[in-house]
Amino acid sequence: MITAATPRRRWSGVGQVLHWTCAGLILFMLGLGLYMVEWVDDPAQKFDLYQLHKTTGAFVFLLMAIRALWRLFTAAPALPQTMPRHEQLISKGVHLLLYGLIFGVLIAGYVYVSASTLPLPIELPGGYHVPNLVAPDYELSESAKVVHHRLAFVLMALVGLHILAALKHRLWDRDEVLQSMLPGRG
């Protein structure tokens, strides 16, 4: 039983579901983005993949907004006492940077498609759509595209670092950092 004097050692089920759902969708989006830009030549297939990417991006934005709001009111589990202070600070910084990059990639993508000279709104299930943010503007669209792509590559690198850090905690440090985000008893 956890008392006020005993810090929580695991993320709640809500936190775990939000984390793993967002993580899976973001990895899917990064992979899909690379695939559709670098390897798809068929215009019809590329169009369909872009539409899927845009729709999924809107869903990721919604989930990340929920997650960020939830996180504002939920304290993180205590980090291991054996974890050096500099690693604790790096961990907090990387998590803030992850949130910032995720929202940055999503917003840049939204501006990119909104300002496109082919102003197709983001389609949602049920026939709904997300309206374009701005009027068509080729230069703005191209600038937002560059920002979207560059931030996505930085995000990929940071996600890789995050995964490596989780594995370090499990395999090298043998502490409970990774387990705190895994389902199961704690």
Automatic annotation (TrEMBL):
Cofactor field: heme b
Positions of transmembrane segments: 17-36, 56-73, 94-113, 147-167
The keyword Zinc belongs to this UniProt entry's keyword annotation: no
UniProt main location, coarse: membrane
Keywords: Cell membrane, Electron transport, Heme, Iron, Membrane, Metal-binding, Transmembrane, Transmembrane helix, Transport
Pfam family, one: Ni_hydr_CYTB
Gene3D superfamilies to which the protein is assigned, alphabetical: Transmembrane di-heme cytochromes, Chain C (1.20.950.20)
Signal peptide: none
Membrane topology: Multi-pass membrane protein
Family according to the record: Belongs to the cytochrome b561 family.
Organism (species): Labrys miyagiensis
Compartment(s) of residence: Cell membrane
Keyword Transmembrane helix: yes
Name of the molecule in the record: Cytochrome b
Cross-referenced InterPro entries: Cyt_b561_bac/Ni-Hgenase (IPR011577), Cytochrome_b561_oxidase (IPR052168), Di-haem_cyt_TM (IPR016174)
Domain Cytochrome b561 bacterial/Ni-hydrogenase: 10-184
Superkingdom of the organism of origin: Bacteria
